[in-house]
Specification:
Blueprint lengths: L2 E7 L4 H18 L9 E6 L20 E7 L5 H17 L8 E7 L19 H7 L3
Parallel strand pairs: 1-2, 3-4
Antiparallel strand pairs: 1-3
């Protein structure tokens, strides 16, 4: 149930943005035990002065194509799974849309199951009867 926020500078084509979002999802499915249809993403495009980043801190050199990927997930993953995701994301995004690995920054945050509501005013992840109430219209 990850929620992915993708931040980058304005000016990329719809095809570029689609390849970026699609390959992030594919990497999550391949390495992070995420079902294919569990896809929630938001793309945030910023003016030059609205996305501020150091060009060399702990990696780089970073270019104007820098992308910040913030992944909020419910279930904790192992360090090995996180490392595999970092590698696979860099590989996939290098293939399409053509991002340099130096320009990909990823931050993973973990939350508890009761921190999520997928709609209808319910905490579906912690409520074993949510499907019954949702089908019957009860809350």
């Amino acid at each position: 149930m990850p929620f992915v926020r993708i931040s980058l500078r304005k000016g990329k084509s719809p095809d570029y943005l689609g390849a970026l979002a699609d390959n992030i999802q594919r990497a999550l499915v391949e390495t992070f035990d995420v079902p294919e249809n569990d896809r929630f993403q938001a793309i945030h495009q910023h003016d030059e002065n609205e996305l501020i980043f150091d060009r060399s801190y702990l990696a780089g050199p970073r270019s104007n194509d820098f992308v910040y990927i913030s992944i909020t997930t419910g279930r904790p993953r192992t360090a090995e799974m996180k490392a595999a995701l970092y590698r696979r994301l860099a590989e996939r995004l290098a293939q399409s849309p053509g991002l340099r690995p130096e320009d990909v920054m990823i931050v993973i945050s973990t939350s508890a199951a009761d921190d999520w509501s997928f709609g209808n005013g319910m905490a579906q992840m912690t409520d074993p009867d949510w499907r019954l109430r949702a089908a019957g219209g009860q809350q």
